Amino acid sequence: AHTLNLFIKRLSKSLLLSGRGHCSEVFDDGNVASGLYVIRPDGAPTSLSVYCDMNNGAGWTVFQRRRDGKESFDRSWVEYKHGFGDLFSPDGEFWLGNEPLHHLTSQGTYDLRINMEDFEGNQRYAEYKNFKVDDEQVK
């Protein structure tokens, strides 16, 4: 199977961690296991469940996972705004949501990392600096 994961990372025990705004803070607090965490980004109206990838020596917030195409990404703007898919299953495909991404990336400076794996298991990644998702009002 091929995999596409998109991550963001801020530069600078139940899994409910109040006061944490992103996965980097979760990692910095000593939580080094990848998995689901509840965070509340600055300015966000509610807390949200996110998958934190704690590999590569940092906490990365996974905002898209594609594995086998079971989840259709042919969606409406409203669905992309709020998010869709199965965040809770290890093999689930999902989009976290443009609005949660806006709240996450408005807290500071972020890098974007794209991890890819093809059908033969070859892995590659790309990293981009200064990643941000604006509010939908910004054109």
TrEMBL record:
<dbReference type="GO" id="GO:0034116">
    <property type="term" value="P:positive regulation of heterotypic cell-cell adhesion"/>
</dbReference>
<dbReference type="InterPro" id="IPR002181">
    <property type="entry name" value="Fibrinogen_a/b/g_C_dom"/>
</dbReference>
<protein>
    <recommendedName>
        <fullName>Fibrinogen-like protein 1</fullName>
    </recommendedName>
</protein>
<dbReference type="InterPro" id="IPR036056">
    <property type="entry name" value="Fibrinogen-like_C"/>
</dbReference>
<keyword id="KW-0391">Immunity</keyword>
<dbReference type="InterPro" id="IPR014716">
    <property type="entry name" value="Fibrinogen_a/b/g_C_1"/>
</dbReference>
<keyword id="KW-0732">Signal</keyword>
<dbReference type="GO" id="GO:0070527">
    <property type="term" value="P:platelet aggregation"/>
</dbReference>
<dbReference type="GO" id="GO:0072377">
    <property type="term" value="P:blood coagulation, common pathway"/>
</dbReference>
<dbReference type="Pfam" id="PF00147">
    <property type="entry name" value="Fibrinogen_C"/>
</dbReference>
<dbReference type="InterPro" id="IPR037579">
    <property type="entry name" value="FIB_ANG-like"/>
</dbReference>
<keyword id="KW-0964">Secreted</keyword>
<comment type="subunit">
    <text>Homodimer. Interacts (via the Fibrinogen C-terminal domain) with LAG3 (via Ig-like domains 1 and 2).</text>
</comment>
<feature type="domain" description="Fibrinogen C-terminal">
    <location>
        <begin position="14"/>
        <end position="139"/>
    </location>
</feature>
<keyword id="KW-0175">Coiled coil</keyword>
<dbReference type="GO" id="GO:0005201">
    <property type="term" value="F:extracellular matrix structural constituent"/>
</dbReference>
<keyword id="KW-1064">Adaptive immunity</keyword>
<dbReference type="GO" id="GO:0030674">
    <property type="term" value="F:protein-macromolecule adaptor activity"/>
</dbReference>
<dbReference type="GO" id="GO:0005577">
    <property type="term" value="C:fibrinogen complex"/>
</dbReference>
<comment type="function">
    <text>Immune suppressive molecule that inhibits antigen-specific T-cell activation by acting as a major ligand of LAG3. Responsible for LAG3 T-cell inhibitory function. Binds LAG3 independently from MHC class II (MHC-II). Secreted by, and promotes growth of, hepatocytes.</text>
</comment>
<dbReference type="GO" id="GO:0042730">
    <property type="term" value="P:fibrinolysis"/>
</dbReference>
<keyword id="KW-1015">Disulfide bond</keyword>
<dbReference type="GO" id="GO:0002250">
    <property type="term" value="P:adaptive immune response"/>
</dbReference>
